[in-house]
């Protein structure tokens, strides 16, 4: 049990560090723009993959506390592979330049036998 908790804390620390690296890269990339871009729906900059009851929702809620992070409100699931990219993008929230779009679905962890 103790090893599981330590592993989870280490994983959260690694993910938080990676998120800050992504946000820093977004800020430097968009700081060269001479005019601000209006908010629009972007593809996710990060996708959280995990098993059901594995704490992915808690992780997403903690990351969403950051003002530069926006999350998809619903789990998109594997359906976006069968639909067009336009549909997948339409499921994402409006974000400004410099913000990170996140998406989380436990179904990404599963392997379907029909595919």
Question: How would you summarize what this structure contains?
Answer:
It comes from Gouania willdenowi. The protein has helices at residues 2-30, 56-63, 85-90; strands spanning 40-41, 46-48, 69-71, 94-95, 100-104.
Count of DSSP E strands?
5
User: Judging from the principal axes of the Cα atoms, what is the shape?
Assistant: flat
SSE ordering: HEEHEHEE
Classification by helices and strands: alpha/beta
How many domains is the backbone divided into? Answer: 1
Neighbour order of strands in the largest sheet: 2-5-3
Give the CATH H-level superfamily.
P-loop containing nucleotide triphosphate hydrolases
CATH class: Alpha Beta
Return the CATH topology: Rossmann fold
Rg (CA only)? 16 Å
End-to-end separation: 35 Å
Structure description:
With 115 residues, this protein is an alpha/beta fold. The chain has a single domain (2-29, 44-109), classed as Rossmann fold. 37% of the residues lie in helices and 13% in strands. The strands form 2 sheets. A 3-stranded parallel sheet has the order 2-5-3. It is flat and about 45 Å long.
């Amino acid at each position: 049990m103790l090893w599981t908790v330590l592993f989870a804390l280490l994983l959260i620390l690694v993910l938080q560090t990676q998120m800050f690296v992504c946000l820093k890269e977004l800020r430097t990339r968009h700081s060269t723009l001479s005019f601000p871009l209006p908010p629009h729906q972007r593809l996710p900059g990060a996708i959280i993959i995990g098993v059901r009851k594995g704490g992915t929702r808690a992780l997403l809620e903690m990351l969403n506390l950051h003002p530069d992070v926006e999350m998809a409100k619903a789990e998109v699931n594997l359906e976006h592979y069968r639909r067009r990219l336009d549909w997948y993008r339409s499921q994402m929230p409006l974000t400004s330049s410099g913000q990170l779009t996140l998406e989380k679905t436990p179904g990404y962890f599963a392997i379907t036998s029909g595919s």
